[in-house]
Amino acid sequence: MEFSRRSRLRPEAKFGLDSMLEWLIPHNVALYAIPPMVDLSITELQLLALERLKVLRILEQATNKNLKLSSDEGRESVFNEMNHAGLKHYVRLCQGNHSKEQDIAARKKDYLSHFILRFAYCSTEELRRWFITREMELFRLKFAGLSAQDVKDFVLKYEMGYSPLTPDQKNEIKDGLYDSTLYHSIVQIESMDFYKVRFTEVLDLVRSRKCYLRTGFAYVGASDFVSIIANKHQQLLEDGLQAHLRLLPEIENDERFTMILKELHTSYTGKDYRVSKSGQVPIESLDQLSKKSFPLCMRYCHDTLRSKHHLKHGGRMQYGLFLKAIGVTMEDSLRFWREEFTRGTVTLEKFEKEYAYNIRHNYGKEGSRVNYAAYNCMKIITASVTPQDTHGCPFKNWEPSVLKTKLSSFGLSAAHAEEISGFASRGHYQIACGKYFEISHDTKLDEGITHPNQYFDLSQITVGARAPKVKPQNQNRRTFSSQDTSHVVRNTQDTATLNGDDDNELWELMESNEKEGGVKHESILLELPASTQGKPASRPAVPTSEWGDDEDFDVSQVEMA
Ligand code: SF4
């Protein structure tokens, strides 16, 4: 079957945005074959992008924890995380195909956010690989929630050219189906749908002997049908990213869009840490706390400050904001830094003149009076560092031999140091950090490390210095939607009424963009020219054989105003 040609994508008569999106997304499992052509405000674009990023990061964390997304346990864990993060609409899309109002709204967010992230993740091989891996996880998660009827609808709506065997066809090969379909009774097999495909389309099923083979064809049950679609979907993603890459130079003229895209992968979507909600931490306890409850990045800053009585700017910012967020007061902070610096080469006068201001600034008492958030792992990991610097993530910046020696000096066995360093040298810095936590606390983590202050909180809870927090129910949480965006943006002073810490990052990003770029969210629109006019006679079909034609994606239609 041929993929839809350009002529089918540019129908003549005009129709509205909603009709167009409903036509493009006929099913809860989307194939993202055709880019949408819509107007989006910068704010909507940011919110959609950050929401999807949260989803993809939840999937990444689940995979890092070795959770099988196809298992009930894995799915439940991911859904809990998504619900907790205010992403119920994505959970909805993973629970079968329905066409209620909420499904249609969820499909639109899913579709638009996917294409926005394509721009953010098309520029390097590393970003593309990350994006495709996560998108494939999301795709499989959604597909696994489909019933046999939903799969049939999927095939039909995307005009994929497959149809289940008729009862007579099934009867003809029933013995083969009984023998090759594991974990199902004969009664179940008789009520299941099977599809006949070329065996080359399902080599993974052939390899794992999960389908019946006859005369060059494989007979695949509806629940395994995802194998066929996943290959095609991955090809679509790869081609789509390449097509977006070719378009990047054109959109780079738009500073607003470029700024958002550049920062997206390193933007933090987790809990925000600005001030401690668990009381004050006296500076006299920092030596002891640093040994047990500081992650390696902060312990290194602390030890260097104690031994050399100085930290360069990057280290002062990274460590100073961390201290503020664990509960060190501004007065204590000033005393702590003053005592250390004046033990070295800095005079008291110089300290008051050159350093005290910055400490007060971090606490929001000077200059723009912003109460700055502590740095998250992504910000620390991606910071540029020189060999003389103290800031940055040791799991990334230290040579394996240095890391192993350091870990051994902290009391870890050679085998444990080797294991952690192995994760670090494969580029899994946060997993290495989580492993270090588990080994040094003799416990199992049920969440990944994404923030040094999260590490500190978890440690304090594990050692019994603090009671664990009871996760709040979702009833008071409020999720962002394109409908309420204008309200949200106009009330920028009212962050306390939003849905908790997780959304502070959205605020921060929007606020910082507003400051840096002078963007007025209400008035600026990104326009994706809508040359689509008139409702098409038929829906865009998805190819079963030719998936490599970039022209078919028609990404070139997407331009920034
Ligand atoms: S993974 Fe995060 S918390 Fe751990 S050392 Fe690196 S930056 Fe610090």
Describe the structure.
With 561 residues, the protein is mainly alpha-helical. Helices cover 54% and strands 3% of the residues. It has three domains: 17-151 and 232-268, Transcription Elongation Factor S-II, Chain A (Up-down Bundle); 158-225, no CATH class; 283-463, no CATH class. The strands form two sheets. A three-stranded antiparallel sheet has the order 2-4-3. β3 and β4 form a beta hairpin. Iron/sulfur cluster (SF4) binds at residues 295-297, 377, 380-381, 393-395, 429-430, 433, 449, 452, 455. Iron/sulfur cluster binds next to α16, α20, α21, α24 and α25. Belongs to the eukaryotic-type primase large subunit family.
Number of helices: 27
Provide the structure class: mainly alpha
The unique ligands bound to this protein are: iron/sulfur cluster
Strand residues, percent = under 5%
Biggest β-sheet description: 3 strands, antiparallel
Number of domains: 3
Unreliable runs: 1-15, 472-540, 542-561
Question: What is the β-strand count?
Answer: 5
What number is the mean pLDDT? Answer: 80
Q: Give the strand line-up of the largest sheet.
A: 2-4-3
Rounded to an integer in angstroms, the radius of gyration calculated over CA atoms is 27 Å
Distance between the termini: 35 Å
Domain DNA primase large subunit C-terminal: 287-456
InterPro entries: DNA_primase_C, DNA_primase_lsu_euk, DNA_primase_lsu_euk/arc
Keywords: 4Fe-4S, DNA replication, DNA-binding, Iron, Iron-sulfur, Metal-binding, Primosome
Organism: Aedes aegypti
